[in-house]
Design brief:
Elements (H helix, E strand, L loop, with lengths): L1 E2 L16 E8 L6 E9 L6 H4 L17 E11 L4 E8 L26 H4 L13 E9 L3 E9 L16 E12 L2 E12 L23 E12 L6 E13 L3 E15 L7 E17 L5 E2 L6 E10 L4 E11 L10 E10 L2
Parallel strand pairs: 1-14
Antiparallel strand pairs: 2-3, 3-4, 4-5, 5-6, 6-7, 7-8, 8-9, 9-10, 10-11, 11-12, 12-13, 13-15, 15-16, 16-17
């Protein structure tokens, strides 16, 4: 039997103060196109992944260390076919959520510290497949009338790397197709498919979300077929329901096969208390391993407990430039193991926008 360790280290409570700064430059050559350049710096790193042993609960605005300034996003977009087709070329930080509908307005802010507290609450982890600071790629979004929308894209985390096993087409990649149906103004539903290849130890399989086992880092290379369904229903101007489900059929090359799942439901209250405020409750399970079979017939021993993620926050818009967001994240059975202690993450996020 192959025992796979999913235990998390013993943890002590700790209080930290972190920062992240972004300078976003938006320019145009024709008035109908957009060149988006972003400089970022911060000191939050990977949140507390090293301490907890899991990617669950990572903050949406993490990812930088030592407050070094970097160009962390460089995109150029333009329209064709009377504006019905939008083309997005991504040279730095390519990701599927930059060109495709994600069914989570207000919470999905691209780590901008005005939406969801965690990476998981921003959007389905399906859209994070292949994302990395070095990712490059192309995304297309085509509107068919007012009710249908088709998106397709290809991204490669090693797109700018000329070494063997990298580049646009010889290394890790993620290709997505999505169909969106909007039966009426307040409701939209979608189905998605992502085909991926991963040779980087699983670091980009779920984009910094999920349990340690879900990344399948114990396999040198994987191919995956991920199927997803999402919806957003704006019940009224003050209540919105969202949800998503994704299932990944993963082949561990020369090793075996695995299944990974993730799902969530969200209740969002736009303009709660006054215009610009927002309250939200997100409940679900970050990506976790549900089945693993080895080609040699050996059985895998691992815990497949559901790693519950519960997140609640309230963004208070103090004025046009400052918002304050208190919130809490509760991780039950972290690393999909009930033997691990629950993790509670409290946050008080202050965002300055100029």
């Amino acid at each position: 039997d192959d025992d796979i360790d999913e235990a998390s280290p013993d943890l002590d409570s700790q209080i930290v103060f972190t920062d992240k700064v972004r300078l976003q430059l938006v320019s145009s050559f024709t008035g109908k196109d957009q060149l988006f350049t972003r400089l970022s710096a911060g000191n939050i790193g990977n949140s507390f992944q090293d301490e907890t042993g899991t990617r669950e609960g990572r903050f949406a605005h993490d990812g930088f260390g030592d407050n070094n300034i970097e160009i962390d996003r460089l995109h150029y977009s333009f329209g064709l076919l009377d504006g019905n087709l939008k083309v997005t070329a991504m040279a730095v930080l390519a990701a599927h959520h930059f060109y495709a509908e994600t069914f989570n307005a207000g919470l999905n802010t691209g780590g901008g510290a005005t939406g969801g507290l965690s990476r998981f609450s921003e959007r389905s982890p399906l859209y994070r497949q292949g994302i990395a600071s070095s990712s490059a790629g192309l995304g297309l979004n085509y509107s068919i009338g007012e009710k249908f929308e088709i998106s397709a894209g290809y991204i490669a985390p090693g797109g700018s790397d000329p070494s063997d096993g990298a580049g646009l087409f010889n290394g890790t990649y993620s290709a997505m197709g999505q169909l969106v149906f909007k039966p009426y103004e307040k409701l939209k539903v979608g189905v998605s498919y992502v085909r991926g290849y991963n040779n980087d130890g699983g670091s980009t399989l779920w984009g910094g979300t999920g349990t340690d086992l879900a990344s399948l880092g114990f396999s040198e290379s994987t191919t995956s077929n991920t199927y997803g369904a999402q919806f957003q229903w704006d019940v009224s101007s003050f209540i919105s329901l969202r949800g998503w489900f994704a299932y990944a059929d993963v082949s561990l090359l020369d090793t075996g096969d695995a299944d990974v799942m993730t799902y969530a439901g969200a209740l969002v209250f736009p303009d709660l208390g006054k215009e610009g405020n927002m309250g939200a409750l997100v409940v679900g399970a970050e990506p976790y391993l549900t089945d693993l079979e080895f080609d040699d017939g050996g059985d895998s021993n691992f815990s497949d407990d559901i790693p519950l993620h519960v997140e609640a926050f309230y963004k208070y818009q103090l004025n046009d430039n400052i918002s304050i967001t208190p919130g809490i994240i509760w991780l039950a059975s972290p690393n999909q193991n009930t033997d691990n202690d629950d993790i509670f993450i409290g946050a008080l996020r202050t965002t300055f926008t100029f």
